[in-house]
Amino acid sequence: MGVVAAPEACWVEPFSGLRPRVFARLVRQLELEGADAPRPGRPWILPLIDRILLVTTYWRTNLTLRQLALLFGVSKSAAGRIIDDLGPKLALRPRKRFAPDTVLIVDGKLVPTRDREVARRARTIDTRPTASGGTRN
Question: Smallest Cα–Cα separation from 27: which of 69, 89, 71?
Fold first, then answer.
């Protein structure tokens, strides 16, 4: 067994950023969605609760896979497979529709929508340098 284990509540909050009660609710939700269903091939080396802690730790701390593997007592490859498997199951489901005037923020940056009037004006301006060093207008 690895050094960090989710059943010990003292590891959950510092590594995942979630209170133990919220973390337990997350684990229950993933169990209900079938995240721990049997699959072909070798069984996971870590139980579901430890795998969830590994993924949340990866997202919160930006540790390398090598560092995570050492913390959880698994190989670097196994840590990567765990993140690849559980990451999409932990991510928020994308919404299909938004209200017409909704402003979306992605990665903390405002995402501008295309203004066709600005785009039309930009296409008509020729900014190639001329022989005299200026630009053509």
Answer: 89
